[in-house]
Amino acid sequence: MADGYEFAQGTGYVLPEYQFVPPPELTSNARRHYPIVICGGGLTGLTMACSLARLGIDAVLLDEDNTVGVKGASSRGICYTQRSLEIFERLGIYERIAAKGIQWSVGRTFAGSSEVYSFDLRTQSHYNLSRQPPFINIQQFYIEAYLVDRIRELGHVDLRWSSRVTAFEQRDDAAVLTVSTPQGDYRLEAAHVIDATGSHSPFRVWTGASVTAKKGDDRWCIADVRFSKHPPVERHTWIEAPFNDNRAVWQHLMGDNVWRIDYQMAPDSDPQQNSREDVVRERLARQFGADCEVEIVWVGPYAYKSECIDRMRHGRVFFMGDAAKVVSPFGARGGNTGVADAENLAWKLAAVIQGRAAESILGSYHDERHEASRQNVLVTNRTARFLRPAPGIEKLFRDAAIGLAKQYVFARQFVNTGRMAIANPYSASRVCGEGGGLPVQNVSFQWANGSEGAVSDLLRWADGRLLLLLFGSVDRTSRRYVRALTEAAPVVAVQVLGSNEAADAIEHVRDPRGHLKGACHVFGHSWALLRPDAYVAATGEAVDAALVESVSRSLGALEIESSGVET
Amino acid sequence: MKTELNLKDADGFYERLLDAHAGFTPEQSQLMNARLILLLANQLGDDEVLAECIEAARQFAAI
Fold first, then answer.
1. Does domain A444-554 have CATH number 3.40.30.10?
2. What ipTM does the predicted assembly reach?
């Protein structure tokens, strides 16, 4: 356990420092070739590195800094969705996140002095089935540090700190990266480059990537604070806060009893002025009363923009996280979707490198994550427009919506303080078949011996291969067919039975409440093919050539030796 | 009068509604809203419901 980054009372955060170790390129002159080089050691890059390490894939990660978080700004994302928590569970860091972070499920939205509406996520059935809670709030750098620790345990990834990429060229046989370090520059070659360098990515220019962008005049200022007086553990949002000149305010708890209070400022206002300590203190006093003792942990003024790269892949370079798209913070769609980008590409790259998938599977990264990026940009832009309506008709409609929402349930749907991030569905992916492209929650079932298991356990067991779930009885012909398929292709098969159904001589689990079946979005007597990233690849009814075709398609049109699997 | 949500995509509708006003002067916007109300009323076609909606919207006049 690296505890060097625990919160230190009174002095803010002490972040871990990682030592620069001279790489072999600096000690010998040989230029080396690596299968995967990840640029950027933030949330997305580290999730990518950890996902690859877990699958046993070697990679190099280059980070320009020697710590997690951003120097002098040790606080960024705070809200992690159930989906991200499920991914972190598979990577092996969920327990640490749960121990440090804060769970919340109640949200309240206010306008003026009255509540417009509230919700409790625990009562929303779709959140209830996962092993992970709807959300956990925790400072982003904690997750990054847990990932670093986990990567060191797993091995496979060479973490190179204080190493900045300063030049890049793409040749036919490899990408060549120039890296600057405290002990000199060197070059290395990569078959695949992951750009996780964030919103100021130099790779956009180096690859000539085009970006669709939009920037507004909305300004905010975060105050991360600790109090002598504790508000309730709930997400509170004010659309029009009387204590903030009728502008918006966000109030959220995270680890170490630190509260994030995020204040909307006047349009186009000066960030220097907004973040001056006396100004921040006065703002806090207006909200919490002059008698409330406040310890300021961090202050961060910001403007936001929305950007979406038009192609997620340029040759050998894959863009992910903020390097691929930038959104406003509303709805926690930034960091969480970076984690999802990494989860999406990691297993595909691993499968190609291990010869378990055809190269063309990599094209599906754009299909799937660009659709998700565009959707997340669209959704966050709508929220931004509600929170900063143009004067005139947009403000008029907002006033009407808020007024109606206080009295009529239907109008709450117009009140948009952020639509929380979800696992985006993939509707146009080259590798998804019938019923495919939908996420699978980490629901529970029973192993054959009666003990409890979860989807994550099955995926860990499949270890980077596809997981075929066969619901209900399986006849002898189908059994032979499935056995031949699992021998010919990287697929493992499990029969899923109700409480009293007899097992048919294949590995089986029991799903007495139908949660596993529901999570796979199937009904009746059927099969579901699950990918290592907990998405459905395809579903079907008959165990026949269509199943083999689905397996092949989800692995990028992998050729499957068909001698054993013909009908 | 329905008071539960009856729209499949409230955010999408709201965006379309605001987009429709783009580039309009306040007078043009008001006129567009008026046209829209008359069009929607004709879709509803239920005098009782329309009377209730008018009354519900009027309550907020003081706000």
1. yes
2. 0.94
